[in-house]
Amino acid sequence: MTELPSRRLLLVHAHPDDESINNGATMARYAAEGAHITLVTCTLGERGEVIPPELAHLTGAALGQHRRSELSAAMAGLGVQDFRLLGGAGRYSDSGMMGLPDNDDPACFWQADVDEAAAHLVEVILEVRPQVLVTYDDNGGYGHPDHIQAHRVAMRAAELAAESGWTIPKVYWNRVPRPVVEDAFARLRDDLPGTPFTKAASVDDVPGVVAGERITAAIDGTAHAAAKAAAMRAHATQITVAEPYFVLSNELAQPILTTEYYELVRGERGPGERETDLFAGVEEAS
Ligand SMILES: [Zn+2]
């Protein structure tokens, strides 16, 4: 087996673009520091809404293929070489928004058997032996079926991998502290007339918002803000960026957060009020 760097981070996401929005600065920082970063994306986001009119013809498998190339471009910008699709490309398809008939498609991720899907991830965990796993909370951050399922599969895979010889020392959920995002939206309301966007989203549109006390780690990605914005821009079917803001297909402006926040849910918390390094306290051994 080839030698892996001593610090290894695994991120599990539902669709191409989620990684850049949630963790783009974190990924850029650790890539720059020489850590091994593995991204596992569970679906190709074939049911995403396409923003640019010139790409609006892309649907289903064609959209999935296009989003795969967007993901490659985003990862090139962040310096991440190891990115994979859960079970291989096309194994699980996008489940669409909660409550739609799409959720019943037997090929969709929401219909996947959790243990079977987790088995694909266990293979990755046993190969890479990450010290840190990042995924969503049990509501998937905002209730999208693929995000909820990504959470279930990631947490189950961590359990199964532990039974097979690799216990991931630290598991984090993506979070956003309410006071931080409230301040960011206050600035956005002032700045909005100077942006290409016409309407602001609200705090409730942001996934994973919790009280500040719940946050155990804050990763300052200021130095990697440009890389994060570029990675988000690479997902052009899904995101329009005008730094420091962006919109999704609903056209509601949101702030790009360059400090990214986490809640430690498994493992030993490092020193300080909030960790500033996801690897704090982990044994850097293979
Ligand atoms: Zn998503």
UniProtKB/TrEMBL annotation:
Belongs to the MshB deacetylase family. Its EC number is 3.5.1.103. It catalyses: 1D-myo-inositol 2-acetamido-2-deoxy-alpha-D-glucopyranoside + H2O = 1D-myo-inositol 2-amino-2-deoxy-alpha-D-glucopyranoside + acetate. HAMAP family: MshB. This is 1D-myo-inositol 2-acetamido-2-deoxy-alpha-D-glucopyranoside deacetylase. Binds 1 zinc ion per subunit. The gene is mshB. The lineage of its organism: Bacteria, Bacillati, Actinomycetota, Actinomycetes, Kitasatosporales. Keywords: Hydrolase, Metal-binding, Zinc. InterPro entries: GlcNAc_PI_deacetylase-related, LmbE-like_dom_sf, Mycothiol_biosynthesis_MshB. GO terms for biological process: mycothiol biosynthetic process. The keyword Nuclease does not apply. Its cofactor is Zn(2+). It holds the Pfam family PIG-L. It comes from the Bacteria. GO terms for molecular function: N-acetylglucosaminylinositol deacetylase activity; zinc ion binding. Catalyzes the deacetylation of 1D-myo-inositol 2-acetamido-2-deoxy-alpha-D-glucopyranoside (GlcNAc-Ins) in the mycothiol biosynthesis pathway. Zn(2+) binds at H15, D18, H147.
